[in-house]
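ok trying again, last paste got cut off:
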Amino acid sequence: MRCPFCDHPDTQVIETRESDDGASTRRRRRCLNCDKRFTTYERVELALPAVVKKNGVRAEFDRRKMRASMALALRKRPVSAEAVDAAIHRIEDKLLSPGLREVPSERIGELVMRELKKLDKVAYVRFASVYRSFEDVDEFADVILEVQARKRRTTR
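nice, full thing came through this time. structure:
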């Protein structure tokens, strides 16, 4: 593993830990050249389906892009990184389970909204406003009323 600070090719593993769900391995490393420390994560990479965008263009599934979109919606919200990781893992599982080679981007957006709704209602409304391209305040109000109606049904 190359050092991200000095690009030296030799690093030493100081500590190794498996994640709680066993899906990834966290390694603390030390550069043998500059002595700086950093963390790497190792996880199994499965062949996720290609994403078909609205304009028909196909792109490789990008976990980082999905995480960045979710992080933007969750900005300044009280949601842990572990909860976000678990949500991303559930989305990837849903994309892998049917065994499809391609998936429409709309499907991914719907899965992200479903997970955000479970994590944080404000983040859900933020994401939905961009994803569904809200054009006026009434569309915001409709989504807020939907969230409130579900909350009332679950508290009864």
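cool. The first strand starts at residue 11 and ends at 18. Residues 50-155 form one domain.
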